[in-house]
Design goal:
- This protein has helices spanning about 1-25, 35-40, 50-60.
- By secondary structure, it is mainly α.
- It has one domain.
Length: about 60
């Protein structure tokens, strides 16, 4: 039983960190080093729509 619960916790944690990282980028943290990651995140089918849209907005702003 610990496996599935810990998997859900890790997924939730990843979503949380993704949101925090996008917030840092939206507030001006340098994006040059993470452009490849933003490009992948904006098109990631396993991520929720709000995360993909934020990544797209940051990606376009950084271009």
């Amino acid at each position: 039983m610990a496996g599935p619960a810990s998997t859900r916790t890790m997924r939730g944690c990843c979503r949380c960190w993704t949101g925090l990282a996008l917030g840092w980028l939206e507030h001006g943290f340098p994006t040059a080093e993470v452009m490849d990651d933003l490009a992948a995140l904006k098109d990631a089918p396993d991520r929720g729509q709000p995360i993909r849209h934020r990544a797209l907005r940051v990606y376009r702003k950084a271009l």
